[in-house]
# Entry
Amino acid sequence: MEDFNRKNHWETVYKTKELKEVSWYEKAPKTSLDFIAYFKVPKTAKIIDVGGGDSLLVDHLLALGYKDITVLDISETALHKAKERLGNQAENVKWIVADVANFKPIENYDVWHDRATFHFLNKKEEINNYLDTIQHSITTRGALIIGTFSEDGPTKCSGIDITQYSEKSMNNIMKDQFDKEKCTYIDHSTPFNTTQNFIFCGFRKK
# Structure
């Protein structure tokens, strides 16, 4: 799939499907919010939601009173949908159109949240670029919250091959720069009445 264009793929997905028509839809991102609560993230913290698309995490963070939120996605269409949904509140969020595989942040973050983006990176170079980015972009003792398909989860999403992770494999690639706080396995129920097993892990930057 050397001719695969990741950006075009996701633009097409978000142009042709509504929020509730994608497998990753969550009415309430409970696991993500639970991890943010676990880390006792202050309302002034700089939070980035990587691959946030038009998910509802940003809505919940705004409702909780968080003041410095960034949402990044490869799809401009996805972010446009999120902005339309939020209305005037969208002005209180920073929006970045970028591919996380080669994203170079211009600021540091206290919380890096990634639900189901990292597992799309299958090439060693892309994974290493991602790891280098989080190493340099998360503040000391900042939180990394990352969710991927587990070894009991799907091997594809949206027709794209993904990389599965376990608690052990996730910790192995993060342990040089991050201290693992906790991991949990969850079953995500899709809008199509199927179940996808995820692993979510929370780390502290050393």
Notes: The first strand starts at residue 46 and ends at 50. Strands lie at 46-50, 68-73, 93-97, 109-115, 138-149, 156-157, 160-161, 178-189, 195-205. The chain has a mean pLDDT of 95.
